[in-house]
Give the backbone structure.
Amino acid sequence: MADLETFRAETRAWLEANCPPEMREPVRDEDDIYWGGRRARFKNAAQQAWLEAAIAKGYTVPSWPKEYGGAGLSPAEAKVLREEMARINARPPLSSFGIWMLGPALLHFGTEGQKRRFLNEIARGEIRWCQGYSEPGSGSDLVSLQTFGEDKGDHWVVNGQKIWTSYADQADWIFCLVRTDKTNKYQGITFMLFDMASEGVTTKPIKLISGSSPFCETFFDNVKVPKSYGEDVPAYVGEINRGWDVAKYLLGHEREMISGAGGSERAAAIGAAMKRLAAKNGDEIDPVLRAELAMFDVDALAYAAMGEKFLDEIKVGKAHPAQPNMMKYVGTELNKRRHELMMAVGGSRSLEWESEETGGGKPARNWLRTKANSIEGGTSEIMLNVISKRILNLPGA
Amino acid sequence: MPLYHNEDQAMLADTARSFMAEEGNIAKQLRHWRDLGCKDGFGHALWKQMAEMGFTGILVDEADGGLGMGHVEAGIVLEEIGRNLTPSPFLTSSVLAATALKHASAELKGRYLPGLIAGDSVFAVAIDETAKHRPSRIATRAEKSGNGFRLTGSKSFVIHGGSADMIVVAARTSGADEDDEGITLFAVPKDARGLSHDHVRLVDSSMATHTKFNGVELDGDAVIGEIDGGRAVLDAMLLAGRVGAAAEGVGVARGAMDMTIDYLKQRKQFGRLIGEFQALQHRASHLYSEVEIARAVTIKAQQLLDAGAESADLMASVAKAKVAKAARLAVQEGVQMHGGIGMTDEYDIGLYMKRDRALAEFLGDAYFHANRVATLSGY
């Protein structure tokens, strides 16, 4: 414990010295988030300085081993770092699907060569990855995916279409589920890695009800994917035809992340802030709405305790392996409810779509965005199926 | 502190679980005493056994002969009481009254704690004066009378009031009914002259009283804590009681849920187990989520209370409200998913519904505590 307190003091001093004041402001716009990649541009010098300091310290991916660009922090140390960053509202220096998704898959399934190359690129923010999972005909029933890679000896020729590929139009590389055996549903999928600049890859942003386009359709037209990128760097994670194992592992991880990452926001009470918002608009909160806010705060604060318990139990292997599904289900439903209430308190002001006062329609756009929470990464209904089957052991589930 | 039971607590939970399942189960206790029409509504023999386990003095300081444990440990016992619907004076005696007595004189402690620890005494608390929990308003008056006080007024929903050897009474020694200050707590012995009870059996078969204080003469040494400064003791007692009631509610919720999920795996209709139907699977999974969360926030409240954290008060109300909602869902889904037999007295699921109703009302329901969360949060 004494060591941990020393670590806390050091971390606090390091953050004080290295996290610029501008990076301690709440994220207001999309470009306040630094995603990295070949095409990335810094919004300002502070963002660059913060990233460079974090890379040098291994703090873009603090839990990863040092040889792969991390700081090799223990879970307890990583928690201290999270707490100290939260204390000063420090923004993450780097955000990416490489950090959240591909990295954990490589740490678990990757070869040494893959780890050295790809993890370091991710840790330094050099390559921005996107995830190719869903297809037009394969949403909740993901394993039915049809994008096919024809075996040509030393390479595959990939044809097909992905959908809901987050930021595919801005990504450098894709980790992609590709069918490599049409005769075997579960053991006929390969978890491929390839360059989005490859010939035959095109992307088309999808405009959402919120007006933004974070997702794309991604088309593969005779894309040539080599099977290897050099010694001990295969172009697939795990084994050929066993990509579903990797995908399942990552889906679990994604649900954990969705349930954990948005946790602090989703778990926060809103009633007091809503009272201030109403006052700012010259209004008072209707008693029935106040009652709903109170019930929401009860649920949100209770969920916060559950989140804390869940993280504590994960650390010592006490959490049920399917528990992330429950966290994801409750957390996303709660977030949708939160934004419904925020819209209600905001009244007609929150309907404004472009006004300066609303930062370009933030309340309405954010409200609409939350509707995807219970769809992406496995719908609420799929989460309930998984809880039924794996936690409650209900028959035929 | 991690938000799960440490090794000692896990051991205690094992012990409490098997003991309460064996000795405190529905057939042996709740149905037995109910069907006999027992005027106490609980069994003294079990209370004595719980004393032998050390449970009755679990919150009492070691210096006073107790186990000196905290609210996490008390909650472990309460969860098992809830799961088995065990009629027991544990919550009123070992949590509420025991918490009040922490603030009492050595003389009062010496008078009451040995009986509690030995399982020979039962205590009650008299707070509410109307049909809803509203501890901000105390109209029962205690006026100076010689060296002591004369108590006049009436209290409602005094659980185990008729069986109690001593009742902790919140009374007003100065000020107006709604005043925060001017409250004093008294330890009123059962044989006090002028004390009378109107006994009522409640929906869950527990016994309560409407208790009248008709000029009850009390010695000055019956005062718990400071004269006119009883609000702090009352608040401490309520805080412990609410966290305790939440823990018992978690047990009720889990008991009802487990019974219901078992039933989904046994009952066949249309040639299939009804647990195969997605309509029921999704409701069961939603229920599971709510109950898990209610349990998590209850442990959080227990830990904060044990750590003496200021936020324990808010979290206690969050827990009490969340548990009330989750347990209500558990018993309603329980009866509905059991179908017709859920309505029969023969099946236990209906007993869970009755107990939840009474327990949720005790020390403030979900509405009271959600309102309190809002008030404490500044809106």
Notes: Chain B has a mean pLDDT of 97. Chain B has three domains: 7-121, 125-228, 232-377.
